[in-house]
Amino acid sequence: MRALIVIAYWIWMLLKWRGEGSRGEEVEEMEEEEEEEEEEKNIQEKEKMTKKLKSGVVDRYGPLHEWCS
């Protein structure tokens, strides 16, 4: 009787462990997707800032043409 309980427990733990493993992979995939989205947003923001800097709209130290000459 004890042997059946122990075997059932092992099977339950194995199934539980395998289930957590697949969930862990899903979580990793979601985290990777979020990181990729953040990287894309950062790239877009950098592109916007470079466009603004090139047009002279945003410059910390004054007009851009003063630094270029």
UniProtKB/TrEMBL annotation:
Keyword Signal (UniProt): yes
Signal peptide segment: 1-21
Biased composition (Acidic residues): 26-40
Assigned keywords, A-Z: Signal
Residue segments, region Disordered: 22-49
UniProt name for this protein: Uncharacterized protein
Native organism: Laodelphax striatellus
